[in-house]
Design goal:
By secondary structure, this protein is mainly α. Helices cover 64% and strands 0% of the residues.
Length: 50
C-alpha cells in the first residue's frame, strides 16, 4: 500500500471519518485491481488519476 494512502487511512481512522474510510478503501481496491491486471503484452497498465 502506498505511503500516502496509509497516512490518509490512519488520519481517517483517528478522526472516525467513515465517509473518508470508505472512499480510501474503494481507492485501494481500485488501485490493487489495476496493478494485478495485465495488458495483452504482459506489461502492467499505467495508473492515471483524474
Amino acid at each position: 500500500m502506498p505511503q500516502w494512502l496509509c497516512n490518509q487511512m490512519m488520519r481517517a481512522f483517528q478522526k472516525k471519518d467513515l465517509r473518508q474510510i470508505k472512499l480510501l478503501n474503494e481507492c485501494w481496491y481500485f488501485y490493487r485491481s489495476k496493478q494485478t491486471t495485465k495488458n495483452e503484452d504482459g506489461s502492467r497498465p499505467e495508473i492515471t488519476l483524474h
